[in-house]
Amino acid sequence: MTETPQTKPEIEFPEGPAPTELQIVDIVEGSGEEALASSTVDVHYLGVEYDTGEEFDSSWGRGESINFPLRALIQGWQVGIPGMKVGGRRKLIVPAAQAYGTSGGHPLSGKTLIFVIDLLGVS
């Protein structure tokens, strides 16, 4: 199956232990404006837990993209999105320390997360 930034991505269940470092994989390279650390990004995204493959969040499920200042997002996004170009699709595998922390009150604390992000715009 060919994935394009216009369709909801499918994430294959990962094999092996969760990585301890942020993994950045370009699925589709964009050709538009490049996201910077200071950018506000317009994205479609899908998030699943690494260990279970269970989807925990998706802008696709809400039927609309979201717009965020990168500096307001989890560290994995702050590090993993800059350099991405509009029109691109990127997979981030984010260890707990760069997601919602290794422990604490958030339901996703202590979990490695996988995101597939489509960059629709930057400002």
From TrEMBL:
One of its GO terms (molecular function) is peptidyl-prolyl cis-trans isomerase activity. Signal peptide: none annotated. It is an enzyme of class 5 (isomerase). The keyword Isomerase applies. Gene3D superfamilies: 3.10.50.40. It comes from the Bacteria. InterPro entries: PPIase_dom_sf, PPIase_FKBP_dom. It catalyses: [protein]-peptidylproline (omega=180) = [protein]-peptidylproline (omega=0). Belongs to the FKBP-type PPIase family. This is Peptidyl-prolyl cis-trans isomerase. It comes from Leucobacter chromiiresistens.
